[in-house]
Amino acid sequence: MPRPSVEAERKAQILASTCKVIASEGFRHLRVSDVAKDAGVSGGTVHYYFETKRELTDAAFEHCFELSVARRRWILESDEPPLSRLRMVVESYLPEGAETVEAWKVWAELWVEAIRSPELQELNERFYGEWRDIVASIFRDGQESGDIHSPGDPVELANMMVSMLDGLALQVLAGSNAMTVDVMRTTCLRFVDQLSTASVG
Questions:
Q1: Are the C-beta atoms of residues 63 and 15 closer than 8 Å to each other?
Q2: Looking at CB atoms within 10 Å, which of 41, 56, 145, 162 has the fewest?
């Protein structure tokens, strides 16, 4: 049996390839053979770590979420004022750059499939709940420091911002002429800027 460090590395490699295939081919068209080819391993190796395709895709969604949070850990742990952190969150989630665009496509596939799959609905609920809590904590910090003047519930404010990012990003990914990355940036940052001057809602 491979050493634990080798196993962890190979497993991460397989999950990264799974996310890549989901983003390029779609969830329903994903084949284990395509994942194995991209990862440079055999199909048997993929099944060694993940017995079923569902285990593989569920783990890939979780892997994508963990990487997404890890890439933004520096923002969450920053000593910058809350409003500055929210602006950094906006910038970091704009669908530009191969890594971020791929992650957005993976999330889009999860959302579409979750409409029909209770199991994926549970995954989405957990991931979204964790992400909502993270964003809400920044709003809460801002209200406590006086940086954010809106008296609204931090969770409601987080829902506003998260849903804005999600909805506009999907339009950008869909190639909307009216919703470019620059328009998305301007729209989201205007929302953040209003938090320091007036109530939202």
A1: yes
A2: 145
What is the residue-wise DSSP string for 95-117?
A: S-SHHHHHHHHHHHHHHHHHTT-
Angstrom distance (rounded) from CA 146 to CA 7: 48
* Greatest Cα pair distance in the chain: 60
2, pLDDT greater than 60: no
For residues 126 and 66, is the Cβ–Cβ distance under 8 A? no
Q: How confident is the model at residue 82 (pLDDT cuts 50, 70, 90)?
A: very high
pTM comes to 0.88
pLDDT tens, residue by residue, 43-66: 999 999 999 999 999 999 999 999
Would you state the pLDDT for residue 198? Answer: 54
Whose CA is closest to 189, among 107, 92, 103, 67? 92
What is the residue whose two structure tokens read 């992400």?
131
Q: Quick one: which H or E segment has residue 90? A: helix 82-93
Report how far residue 104's alpha carbon sits from residue 167's, in angstroms, rounded to the nearest whole number: 11
> Using the 8-state DSSP alphabet, how is residue 180 labeled?
-
Name 188's Cβ contacts closer than 8 Å, sequence gap at least 6: 90, 161, 164, 165, 168
